[in-house]
Fold:
Amino acid sequence: MTSDTPALELRGLRKDFGRPAVDHLNLTVRRGELYALLGPNGAGKTTTLRMVTGLLAPDAGHIDVLGVDMARDPAGAKRRMAYLPDDPMLYGKLKPTEYLEFVAGLWGLRAEEAEARGRHLLDWLDLSRHAHELTEGFSRGMKQKLALAGALIHEPELLILDEPLTGLDAAAARQVKDLLLSHVAKGGTVILTTHILEVAERLAQRIGIIRQGRLIAEGTLAELRERTLGGSLEDVFLQLTEQA
Structure:
């Protein structure tokens, strides 16, 4: 794999559920960037992410993750990434330390390495004081942060998040955003969907907008503004989705 190998490349990706949910989507995400995938409800964002992560089989098209063909080597592709859905599943009878130990074990991490990484993530996300409490009593925000720690425990090269800030208060959202920026600063790649357009405006280096399963616009915010009458990302988003 060369340094210019994309973190993610989709070619002709398609999925139908009686109608096209993802319609011959072509998309390239560069390594080391934070990419926001935006679109109205029902645009195909979550369906796309579920196909990328191997949770849903595409009807057609190709998915390459850091140069690994998902169809030919699904295990190899999945080892390079982590996925955090909008409603992550935790095990209520486990404590955060136990949950992270369990997830680390799935990735084959050594116990000492897993413990050190878990401790660091819990400290960063302000969960250390709850490390020995059962997660069944956690708030939605605490569960979201713990699930993010689980996604990062094996230090994936590609981190994919579907609405990661839903239900978080301002302090928790700030912690999550800082962690994502840190992951990118260390060379990782982040792809996220969000309906909070201010988040994408502040964090994303590039933005892709899909509608009815197709990519209708892509670029930096400045580049997207050039295609419209300008304004905030919300203004640009509404103009582009109404034109399509």
User: Anything to note?
Assistant: Residues 7 and 77 are 11 Å apart (CA to CA). The longest strand covers residues 20-29.
